[in-house]
C-alpha cells in the first residue's frame, strides 16, 4: 500500500519534478557508472548515465536532454534536470519490482519458517505420551549434569568467552534447536506463566508468535526507507558500496543467531551453577537480561532491518538487469555481482529457516509473555470487553465501576478477566491445547 501511494505521488508530480534543474557540475558527480568523454559528447558507460537521479541520455549538444517520451526539458545554460521523465518511469518500474519481490520474499519466509517448526510439532505431541511423563516424572531426582539439556551446553569451552561464542556461532548451522532444548524451554515457560504440569500446546503458541513476528518483519518504517535512500546515494562508481551493503544483513543475521544460541547455553550454565540435583526437567529462569539491552524486541528490529536491506539488494539487481542488461556498466565487476546475489539468497534462507523460528522460540524466555498466548477467540473477547468499558467511560461512568457493572449484552465486562485466570489452572489449560 505504501509503495502504491509513493508511485501515485510520483505520477501526480512528475511534470513538476522534471522541471527541477540543477547545476551541470552536480549532475556529473557521484555517478554509478564511469563517464567516458568522446569528442565533446559525455556519455555514461554503455551510453547510459545515472538513469535514476539525473537519468538523461546526452547526445550531441550537451544543452539538450532527450527524454524517453520524446519531449525536451528546457533548463538554463549550464544546468540540467534533476531527474528526467525516463528516470521517473524507471522509478515506477523499480517500485513494481519491490512490491513483487516483497510478496515472494514474505511467502518464502513463512514457508521455510513453518517447515522448520514441523519437527517441533512431533516433540509437542510426544509430551502427551506415557513415556514422556515417566522419563520426566517431577518426583524423580537426577544429577543436573546428567540431564540432556545441561550436558549439551556445559563443556570446557564455556569457561573461555571466545570459544563460548564461537561454539554458539556454529550451533545455529548444526542442530540449532534440538529436542532437549525445546522441551527445557517449554517446561520453563509453562512453569513461569502457567500452572506447572499444564497440557499447554507450546508449539501452536510458537506458531502464532511466528506469525506475529512475520507481520513485523514485512512492514516498513521511515528508518528503513532512509537506509534505502542512503544505499542509492552512496552507489558511486569505484566504491563497491552495494557489495558491502549486501554483507551487512549477513553479519546481522549471523550475530543474532549466535546471540540466541548463547542465551540457551547461558540458561543451561545457570542451572548447573544453582543446583546439583534436579527434579524432572531442568527449570530455566526466564529474564529479559539475557537479551541485548534487556529488550527481546531489539533483535526483531535487527531481523527486520536485515531482511529489508537484503530484499532491496536482490530487487535492485533484477531491476538493473531488466532495465539496462546483465552486462551493463552497473555490472562492470561481475564477480562482485555474483557474490552479492549469492549472499542475498543465503541470507534469505538462513533467516527464514533458522534465525526467525529460533527467535520466535527463544524470545519467550523474556520476563513477559506475548499476547499470542491467547487464541483468536479470547483476543476478540478481550477487545469486546475493552470496547464495552470504553463506552461506559465515555458516558461518564468511572473505569473502576464499569468493570463490575453488567455489560449491554447481559454479561459482566470483567468476564474476560476470569477467562484469563483459567489459563493458570491445570484443568482449564487443557482447553488451550485444543484451540
TrEMBL record:
Q: Tell me the leader sequence span.
A: 1-17
Q: How does this protein sit in the membrane?
A: Multi-pass membrane protein
What sections of the protein cross the membrane?
Answer: 91-112, 214-236, 242-264, 298-322, 337-362
- Pfam families for this protein: Mlo
| Region annotation (Disordered) ranges | 392-435
User: What spans are recorded as compositionally biased (Polar residues)?
Assistant: 398-414
Asked if the Swiss-Prot or TrEMBL record annotates the protein with the keyword Membrane, the reply is yes
Q: Where in the cell is it found?
A: Membrane
Which GO CC annotations does the UniProt entry carry?
membrane
The protein's matches in InterPro entries, at most eight in alphabetical order, are given as: Mlo (IPR004326)
Return one GO MF term.
calmodulin binding
Q: What is its main location?
A: membrane
Supply one GO BP term. Answer: defense response
Swiss-Prot/TrEMBL domain comment: The C-terminus contains a calmodulin-binding domain, which binds calmodulin in a calcium-dependent fashion.
Q: Its biological function? A: May be involved in modulation of pathogen defense and leaf cell death.
Q: Can you tell me which family this protein belongs to?
A: Belongs to the MLO family.
Q: What is this protein called?
A: MLO-like protein
Q: Which organism is it from?
A: Musa acuminata subsp. malaccensis (Wild banana)
Taxonomic lineage:
Eukaryota, Viridiplantae, Streptophyta, Embryophyta, Tracheophyta
Amino acid at each position: 500500500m505504501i509503495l502504491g501511494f509513493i508511485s501515485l505521488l510520483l505520477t501526480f508530480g512528475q511534470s513538476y519534478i522534471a522541471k527541477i534543474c540543477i547545476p551541470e557540475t552536480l549532475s556529473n558527480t557521484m555517478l554509478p557508472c564511469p563517464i567516458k568523454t568522446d569528442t565533446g559528447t559525455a556519455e555514461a558507460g554503455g551510453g547510459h548515465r545515472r538513469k535514476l537521479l539525473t537519468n538523461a541520455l546526452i547526445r550531441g549538444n550537451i544543452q539538450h536532454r532527450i527524454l524517453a517520451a520524446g519531449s525536451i526539458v528546457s533548463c538554463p545554460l549550464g544546468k540540467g534536470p534533476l531527474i528526467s521523465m525516463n528516470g521517473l518511469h524507471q522509478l515506477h518500474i523499480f517500485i513494481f519490482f519491490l512490491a513483487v519481490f516483497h510478496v515472494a520474499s514474505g511467502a518464502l519466509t513463512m514457508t521455510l519458517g513453518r517447515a522448520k517448526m514441523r519437527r517441533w510439532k512431533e516433540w509437542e505431541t510426544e509430551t502427551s505420551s506415557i513415556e514422556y511423563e515417566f522419563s520426566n516424572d517431577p518426583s524423580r531426582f537426577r544429577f543436573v549434569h546428567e540431564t540432556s539439556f545441561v550436558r549439551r551446553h556445559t563443556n570446557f569451552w564455556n569457561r573461555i568467552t571466545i570459544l563460548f561464542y564461537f561454539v554458539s556461532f556454529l550451533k545455529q548451522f548444526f542442530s540449532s534447536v534440538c529436542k532437549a532444548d525445546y522441551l527445557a524451554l517449554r517446561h520453563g515457560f509453562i512453569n513461569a506463566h502457567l500452572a506447572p504440569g499444564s497440557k499447554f500446546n507450546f508449539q501452536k503458541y510458537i506458531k502464532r508468535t511466528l506469525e506475529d513476528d512475520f507481520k513485523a518483519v514485512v512492514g516498513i518504517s521511515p528508518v528503513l526507507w532512509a537506509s534505502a535512500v542512503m544505499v542509492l546515494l552512496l552507489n558511486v562508481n569505484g566504491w563497491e558500496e552495494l557489495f558491502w551493503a549486501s554483507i551487512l544483513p549477513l553479519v546481522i543475521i549471523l550475530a543474532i543467531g549466535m546471540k540466541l544460541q548463547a542465551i540457551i547455553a547461558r540458561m543451561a550454565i545457570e542451572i548447573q551453577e544453582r543446583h546439583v540435583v534436579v527434579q524432572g526437567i531442568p527449570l530455566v529462569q526466564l529474564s529479559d537480561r539475557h537479551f541485548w539491552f534487556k529488550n527481546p524486541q531489539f533483535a526483531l528490529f535487527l531481523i527486520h532491518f536485515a531482511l529489508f536491506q537484503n530484499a532491496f539488494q536482490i530487487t535492485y539487481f533484477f531491476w538493473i538487469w531488466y532495465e539496462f542488461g546483465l552486462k551493463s556498466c552497473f555490472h562492470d565487476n561481475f564477480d562482485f555481482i555474483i557474490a552479492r546475489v549469492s549472499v542475498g539468497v543465503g541470507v534469505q534462507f538462513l533467516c527464514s529457516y533458522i534465525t526467525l523460528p529460533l527467535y520466535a522460540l527463544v524470545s519467550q524466555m523474556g520476563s513477559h509473555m506475548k499476547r499470542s498466548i491467547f487464541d483468536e477467540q479470547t483476543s476478540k473477547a478481550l477487545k469486546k470487553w475493552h470496547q464495552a468499558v470504553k463506552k461506559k467511560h465515555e458516558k461518564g461512568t468511572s473505569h473502576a465501576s464499569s468493570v463490575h457493572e453488567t455489560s449491554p449484552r447481559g454479561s459482566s465486562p470483567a468476564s474476560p478477566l476470569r477467562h484469563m485466570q483459567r489459563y493458570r489452572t491445570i484443568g482449564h489449560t487443557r482447553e488451550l491445547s485444543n484451540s
